[in-house]
Amino acid sequence: MNLAAHPVVASLTPVFLLIAIGWLAGRLHWIRDAAVKDLSNLVFLVLIPALLFRTMSAVRFEELDLRPVLAYFPAALLLLAISIGWRGFNRASVVMGLAGVFSNMVMIGITLVELAYGKQGLVTLLTLVSVHALILLTTGSVVLELAVAREARAGGGRTPHLMQSAASAVKGALIHPIPLPILCGLLFAQTGWTLPTVIDKPLLLLGNAFGPLSLVLVGVTLARTPLRGHLQDALWITVSKNLLLPVMVGLSAWALGITGLPLTVIVVAGALPIGANVFLFAQRYDVARELTTASMGMTTLVSLFTLSLFMLAMSWIN
Questions:
Q1: Inter-axis angle of helices 91-99 and 67-87, to 10 degrees?
Q2: In the chain, how many domains are there?
Q3: Which of 32, 47, 102, 265 is 20–30 Å from 109 (CA)?
Q4: For the whole model, what pTM was predicted?
Q5: For residue range 271-312, what is the model confidence (pLDDT) as tens digits?
Q6: Could you tell me the residue range of the domain that residue 236 belongs to?
Q7: Of 238, 211, 10, 283, which Cα lies nearest the Cα of 103?
Q8: SS3 for 103?
């Protein structure tokens, strides 16, 4: 058997080559920090919405399979609760727990799943993506506010308004450049209309630009990620994110009778490295920032092997 021709290898190779190109560009300082921020805004505010809206604009509600959502998120929330309970309830443990369950489904996952499993696999992934931030980031916000309130009470300080923080988190998760175009695309699809060519073609071109640019930016970020001094804690987070989560998600899906491509996609989604949103929590709550950055770098590096392992295993199972 020609290993290079194996569909798993064929889909993973361009993903990691683009990340490697970005890493080289970052190490050689071809892309400045200010440019990285501007390019990230371009990806999140223009390219991702175009891709998500166009993909979902042809998907009818009756074609959606919501069982992957019911399998994925209870497993992720259970692992988050176990992680917080193991480390103790405080801001740092919540951020570290989120790092162990929040996947980079957009910057890496979308391109990888589309290459490996086509549009059908992408629809399954986008079903997860549409509620990924809403469920995990809202839960993280509420639990973090509870931790802040607990620390404030312990220090005799003023307790923050929990309900206001929770409402703000829900609003921020819904009015966001990821779930919003997915929902708008789905609503458009239910009308039975099709996008006119004059609109569809620019959306196609913008969507095609998303994959390579986002992966190069992952590599640039990786080149600027320090690992020194945080290896042990980052290793535990990596074990949780790259190994425990996909296994727990797979078992949850198996218990619900999910098989075939949907099972493969949600296991691969669980095995993806940490998403960048976790760092925003670390920054906002001023806790574990360097550890979060180091963990993002480590999970991305280790995913070269763990993603390959899970994708190969799922190709044999299915």
A1: 140
A2: 1
A3: 32
A4: 0.79
A5: 999 987 787 778 778 888 889 888 988 998 898 899 999 999
A6: 3-317
A7: 238
A8: strand
